[in-house]
Records
---
Amino acid sequence: MSPIDSISSALNTLAAPPTQGPTKLPAGLSDGLSAPSAPVDGFSRLLDGLVSSVSGKEAQADAITSQVLLGDSSQLHQSVIAMQEASTSLSLMVAVRNKLVESYQELMRMQA
Amino acid sequence: MDLIPGIDITAGALAAQKTRLDIVAQNIANAQTTRTPAGGPYQREQVNFETELLNRTDGANSLLQSVKVSSITTDKTPGQTIYDPSHPDAGPDGTVKMPNVNLAYEMVDLITASRAYEANLSFAKDARELAMKTLEIGK
């Protein structure tokens, strides 16, 4: 039994608030850590969504910036604002990821 | 997704003030222009603003208003007429119609527009700082 399997059963009893709809959160956590490519409910899907939103924002900022650099647009502020939004959403993603890792480590400490 | 509060509104205001700065530049640049495609001397232009409802999907904030340039109008006041028979645009009586650009007005407009731009920039900076501080809740 891997350590992740053992905590996922602990998570089943701990981290399932009644309002959370389909409570696939523990499965998502363990699946996300062992097989990141599998799209499942819970944290891994949340992270997936965040990553694609961040990458979308970065692509948008890239497009606007190259338009400004190529002289197609003179909206310098739009480019800087788009970059700022991309950086803020990246920080949001990092904050979510840090929280996730923190709670994982908190759970791991339970067996020590 | 609107991560940074109010940034769309500020973006509209920045674009509008930028247009105003462009028009001030145009007025100053053409302060001595006596010939235009439409005929006659250059006439100074003015930028007018109007509110713009933002197309937002989140119900509560859907009535937020940004600003956009509604029209650019021409100031019809007649300019100075000076006597200069050697000027190629001089009339038969030797007078030339000069543009109605008054540099004092343009400087006032320039200062107002650039200060307004700065005010919107400091809002943008503050909004970004607020978003970053919000993320620090989790730390």
---
Amino acid sequence: MLRVVGSDKVTEAPASTQSPPVDKAVGATPLPGPGPRPADASREPISDDEFGAIYQAQFDYVFYSLRRLGAHDGDIEDLSHDVFVALYRGRGDYDRARPIRPWLFGIAFRVASDYRRRARHRSEVAGEGREFADLGPDAEGRLSAAEDRALVREGLLALDLDRRAIFLMHDIDGHPMPEIAAALAVPLNTAYSRLRLAREQFARVVRRKRPRREAP
Amino acid sequence: MNELPTDVDRLLHAERGSVPPAPAGARERVLARLSSTLGGSASLPLPLLPAAAPVAAAAGLSSAAKWGLALLLGGGLPLVSYLALRPAPAPVTLAPSATSAPAAAAVAVRAPLAPAPAATALVAAPATSASMAPPAAPAAPVLIVPPRDRRVRNDGPAASGQGDDSLAAERGLLEAARAALALGNTTEALALCRRHQHRFAAGQLTEERESIAVRALVSAGQTAAAQTRADDFRRRFPRSMFLPAVDAVLQ
């Protein structure tokens, strides 16, 4: 029996004006083992209890990651289901020495890639659906935050999925590059190259669109 | 490595702050579907949805009724599929479904290829860390899954020669069958299983179909037929993740 005992609480990312520090990533905490274990137990499969805890604690993260990866709002529940099925079926592959979120994101990325390969899903819609976030206390702040989020979303959607995934994982989620490369199964240098290109493209797109938004 | 310009980086602050909660009910709906995909025990849905459990238990409902109540309270997609499909005598029209469980299974959870030189910096959390074992929520949902077998299926679309649309249709049929079973309509569940078998003789969800059929037969009191079908299931899919559920329902 699997008891879901997780919490919705999400650790806040470190405040920073630049890219988050790589060693203080959100969700960077590795999955603790069931207790004292030998050094080679890092590959011990995730237990049912742990799977339930992961589901409970990381559902929102998976859901939102899929959205940021470009899934249509109406499809995200299907895709979230698929992510957790893949997680369960691959639970023996998880390395406990690694944080859980990059691994989950890697699964979400592959599910989203598979989803995008279907022709009918290739057209992405910026700003589709509602925003799930609490945008702030005052109306002006909410509007500004909503505009920023929409702009970010447009910038993200302009990136191809490979670059977008690395950009999300590093510059937003704050995961360290070695973890990202491992989770996405790409060489580290390739990951850095994609991040560089993603940053350039993202900056170009948001700067191009921002003046248009700010015009009366 | 180039950094993001400050003005662009500032835009990302809100995104970094927190993960917005998923829409209300999404967690429960996905959990219900996960239970169906990964589990299969007849008693599974009772504790699945916290709101359903006490109500169903207090009412002394049958297992099938509990299934139905749990699904109703969870707004389960299978129920919607079932209700949509129920009157349809001919080819089934399904709500478009983006993905399927087997499709997800085909997405390999690959072992990391790259070395992790910096991983040691992240391993500081003690085994007693509460990050994955936070205080138990008072009404935590419970999900029952088979205790073993993480076999990666390789019977994807390429193997079956069927495309995504077929897969979605397969899944829709079986979700409807599950919903019918949950509502105690074993005749309808078995009919939908037969329809699946007819339309998708070499389908990708054969294991799922057979596990549903066994449960439906047991619920219908056709124990001998259920046993025969379960034996066949065991022979064909000795490592199936559905096998524990099939075994359990016959015990």
